[in-house]
Amino acid sequence: MSIKDNIAKLKNELPDHVTLVAVSKTKPGEAIMEAYEAGHRIFGENKVQEMVQKWEELPKDIEWHMIGHLQRNKVRYMAGFVSLIHGVDSLKLLEEIEKQGKKHDRTIPCLLQMHIAEEETKFGLDVPELEALLESNEFKMMEHVKIVGLMGMATFTENQQQIRKEFANLRSIFENLKERLPYIHILSMGMSGDYQIAMEQGSTMIRIGSSIFGARN
């Protein structure tokens, strides 16, 4: 099936409240343009340099999402155009995004990344760290970042019960946070292998690469 067909098939399957992020990392501009011509506008990259290059070369109505682990020294390269940063996992990173947002005179939407997997390799905050961040004076003073939701990745496993449990856990953290920050609306969880479970557990944004563009290069 073509990229166009894959996108049409996915969009037919998704409820209206779920946003599809096409994960275009390592994919050439031609592949992104094929998805673009099929009407898709939201793309996810995990390397800042690659995203900047694509932003320069491709149509300006594309929304670029930074979905990978983000180093503070790279924020400045994309602060002027990035639509959403998925993986904010520390106050220090948020402070850098605030600083760069101020320079560009824009408010940068961000998701806080929670650590829900049993694997130690995944980045993210635990609940006490989330609390500490939200209670900090630094956070309360920020004017150029907006926390619009949470993101998390489940353990890479065949065990669907475990994946379900981890996503359910993230959803309950999200629901609790909503009482404090009523404007948050994005729960980004689910990738090619587990997005159906993620949607069943309340995901509003899924990140799909291989099911759209084929296996990784």
What is this structure's SSE topology?
Layout: H1 3-13, E1 19-23, H2 29-37, E2 42-45, H3 48-57, E3 63-66, H4 75-78, E4 84-88, H5 91-103, E5 108-114, H6 127-135, H7 137-140, E6 145-152, H8 160-180, E7 186-191, H9 195-200, E8 205-208, H10 210-213
Parallel strand pairs: 1-2, 1-8, 2-3, 3-4, 4-5, 5-6, 6-7, 7-8
What does this structure look like?
This protein has a single domain (3-209), classed as Alpha-Beta Barrel (TIM Barrel), CATH 3.20.20. It has 217 residues and is of the alpha/beta class. The model has no long low-confidence stretch (mean pLDDT 95). The protein has helices at residues 3-13, 29-37, 48-57, 75-78, 91-103, 127-135, 137-140, 160-180, 195-200, 210-213; strands at 19-23, 42-45, 63-66, 84-88, 108-114, 145-152, 186-191, 205-208. Strand 6, helix 8 and strand 7 (186-191) form a beta-alpha-beta unit. The chain starts with a helix and ends with a helix. The chain is globular and about 50 Å long. It has an eight-stranded parallel β-barrel with strand order 1-2-3-4-5-6-7-8. Helix content is 42%, strand content 20%. The chain contains ten helices and eight strands.
